[in-house]
Design goal:
Number of domains: 1
Largest sheet: none
Bound molecules: adenosine-5'-diphosphate, magnesium ion
Order of helices and strands: HHHHHHHHHH
CATH architecture: Alpha Horseshoe
Helix content: 55-70%
Shape: globular
CATH topology: Serine Threonine Protein Phosphatase 5, Tetratricopeptide repeat
Number of strands: 0
């Protein structure tokens, strides 16, 4: 069985559910060291994707679906996060063209996507942003692919890695985005963008885990 964009409606719904279930917590995080609008921004993107579920599920291949998702997020989310989500998916779309999407290929494509987010945000690990979740998750994928482990193995480890990355932002001092204006006072709060990235990754992984045969 191969994983096709027919999975996207379930993934988008799972993402929407987890963001709504955690909306108050996320808003409190963004209010503490940002401007409190992160859920509002993200919700605009998710609503747009919910409306596109049917169309996305019928896309021929993942790169086409990622392109549509990237353009939708880029044009609806706004804030600092919107262009970063858009960049992730648009880069993945470009990198994924004319590839057989096995697990190592996906890992490479995702790594390229995360690299482009770093460039776009002029940010790296340890700056208290959503990259503190994306970077360790990428490393986890790369490690599994390098050891010829299966996608199912990687899926088992990713949630804990994403949660650890999100938790690690608590003790960091922000050097990018609005939270950086607070300097040392940004310490002690989890970054809102890292929290939503962790929640979204965990939601997508849960859908994938149900659809991936254990190898
Ligand atoms: P804004 O900060 O413009 O209000 P959001 O509230 O939607 O936008 O998103 C804030 C999140 O975006 C932060 O919590 C952080 O994770 C992420 N972020 C902000 N700036 C950057 C950056 N330069 N690189 C990576 N991520 C960033
Ligand atoms: Mg904000």
């Amino acid at each position: 069985m191969s994983l096709t964009p027919a999975l996207l409606p379930d993934m988008i719904s799972a993402v929407a559910d987890t963001i709504e279930q955690n909306a108050e917590t996320i808003t409190a995080l963004d209010q503490a060291i940002g401007d409190g609008d992160h859920v509002i921004n993200l919700r605009r993107g998710i609503q747009a994707l919910l409306a596109q579920r049917e169309e996305l599920s019928q896309m021929e291949d993942w790169p086409s679906a990622w392109q549509k998702i990237g353009m939708t997020l880029m044009s609806t989310v706004g804030g600092a996060s919107g262009s970063l989500y858009g960049t992730l998916f648009l880069t993945m779309s470009k990198a994924g063209r004319n590839q057989t999407l096995d697990f190592p290929a996906f890992t490479d494509i995702f790594s390229q996507g995360v690299e482009s987010v770093k460039q776009r945000g002029k940010a790296d690990a340890g700056e208290k942003t959503l990259l503190d979740v994306l970077i360790p998750v990428t490393a986890c994928l790369c490690q599994a692919a390098a050891h010829s482990n299966t996608c199912a193995d990687a899926l088992k480890n990713i949630p804990a890695v994403a949660i650890a990355g999100m938790e690690a932002t608590r003790d960091m001092v922000a050097s990018k985005g609005r939270a950086s204006f607070l300097g040392e006072r940004s310490r002690g709060h989890i970054d809102a963008g890292a929290k939503t990235m962790q929640l979204m990754i965990c939601a997508v992984v849960a859908v994938l885990a149900e659809s991936t045969p254990p190898a």
